[in-house]
Each structure stands twice: as C-alpha cells, then as structure tokens.
Amino acid sequence: MHLYEPMIRTIAISTAFFLLFVGLAYLVRIAMTRWFRKWVQGTATSLDDRILALLAHPVFYVILLYGLDFAVRRLPFHGNIIRTIQGGIFIAGIVVVTTIVYRIVMTFIDWYAERLRTRKSTAVLIKEFIPLTQRVVSILILILAIIVALKHFNYDAWSLVTAMGVGSLAIGLAAKETLTNMISGFSIMLDRPFLPGDRIELSTGEIGDVQDIGLRSTRIKTFDHTILVVPNSALVNSSLVNYCYPDFKIKARVKVGVAYGSDIEKAKQIMLEITRKVSTILQDPAPRVFFTDFGDFSLNLLMIFWVKEYTQMFDAKDRVNSMIHQRFAEAGIEIPFPIQTVLLKK
Hints:
Blueprint: H1 5-40, H2 47-72, H3 79-116, H4 123-152, H5 157-174, H6 176-191, E1 199-201, E2 207-213, E3 217-222, E4 227-231, H7 232-236, E5 241-242, E6 250-258, H8 264-277, E7 281-282, E8 288-294, E9 299-307, H9 313-331
Antiparallel strand pairs: 1-2, 1-5, 2-3, 3-4, 6-9, 7-9, 8-9
C-alpha cells in the first residue's frame, strides 16, 4: 500500500488542479454571460454583443483543455502515454481555437455586410465580394491551423506551404484569363463605375442596361431584348459611357435641313415652340437652335435640348421630329432631299 501512496497522492493533486480549472471555467462563463453582457449592451455597436455571445462556450472549453493538460503533466505515467494524451489535448485545443477565430472573423464580416446593406451602391459588393471573402478567409484559417498542428508534432510545415505555393502558381498560369477577369470584377465592385440598372454604352457601340455584375463577366440587356455578356477585363481596360451619372437627365440633338430661300428665324422659332409642347423636355437648361452650315442642297439647323431621363430620349426625339415635319409643312418650309443636276454637253 505504501508503494502506491505517492502515485495516489499525485493523481489526487492532478485531479484537484483539474477541478480547480473546471471551477474557473464556470466562473469565466458566468462572468461573460452575465456581467460582461450588461457592459457591452451599453455600447453603440452590436458587434461586441455578438462576439461575446459566441465566445462564452468556446472559452469555457479552452480553460478546461488547459487545465486537463496541466493535470496530465503531473500524472505518474509513462512518457509516451503522457505525450499521446497531450497530443490529443493539443488537437482538441486547435479545433476549439480555430472555431473561435473562424466565428469571430465571420461575425465581423456579417456585421460589416449589414452596414453596407443600407447603401444601394454596395449591393454588388455584398452579393459577390462578401461571400468570396468568407470562403477565402475560411480556407486561410484552416491552412494556418494545419500548419500549427504539423509544427507541434515536428513535421515540416514549410514543405506543405511550398507545395501549395507551386500548385497555386500552376493553377494561376492555367487560369490566367479567369483570374484577370476576377481581379477586374473586384475593381468594378470597389470602384463602381456602374451599378445594376445603369444604362451604359460600350466603346464598341453597344448600348444596354446592366443586369448583373459577376466575378468573371458583366451581363448587359440590350435594346434587342438580348443579354450581352462582356468579360470584366474588357470593361476595365476600355472607356464606356454611363448615362446615369452624374444624374438621369441627358442631352439630345436633332438635325434638320431646310431649303435655300427659307426663313431661318421662323424655322428656329417653330422648333423652339415644339420643345415647349413636349413634357419630357426640360426648359432649364433652355433648348437652343443653331444654324450650323450651308449644305450642298440645304441650310442645316441643329437643335439641342435636355430630356428629364435617359429612358425618355428616343420618345422625345420621335415626337420632336414628327412635329417638326408637320409644322414645317403647315408653314410652307421645305425640307429638301438630295438633288443632283447633270448637264450633258453636246
């Protein structure tokens, strides 16, 4: 019996230490769920409330694992058995700490996304960039946890990092165009030269309304009721026109030619009167008519006016052109067509 007394005493002391850590873990959890909660509820942001709520139970298990490791070190067992038990405790601790870090980062990203939802201009950022960021961060946290675990068990973690780096380089070279479009997609989301619903004109002449901004491409609905898919890199590296910036109004131009000998001032007056009868045409800035040049068979006039919204421009120009044709006919102002006179010399 006397031979086992030191072992029994050591086991009892280790058990007492573990129970002490159990009590400390419960005390910390009570403090976090009751006392600290009242303190963070008085702050202006809800981020600290969320972090405190998700930390209460994981911190409890971290203290328990630390206490178990502290107690196991004092047990009078064979060294290999102690190291095996400590290895299992370390792995469990890695899992708990990784879970804590993951939850904190995801909570912060979700909180930041909720703040962005109040702004219309960041809708694309929430839809595309936030989920991608969550996936990338999750992978990085997992990789770091694996590296720490391998390092603890004396494995060469850097060989794993090197292999992953070479693999990433190979994947990057194979998917160069895709990565270029993804980076361009990030640029569009952050710089926001256009948003879903905006009408844009590409450098190639196509005009349409932006339907969706993805990571690889942007979809544009054209006037032919078709979807034009444009790679993001093409949009970033070329100039385009956004009809929605700085506001929705747009300048329209109408060109018309009258016959030589026509009353230019009367034609101008008629054209200005027409703009006052079209409700979608703004009077501030005031429409203006210019006598631009002497054509081969006509005197050319240019009228400039502003339309309330870019979506109304074609309808406004249609009404203006129709009324000009009608009013010029009533006033006896001729709109000539090309005439070519050929003289035959005998």
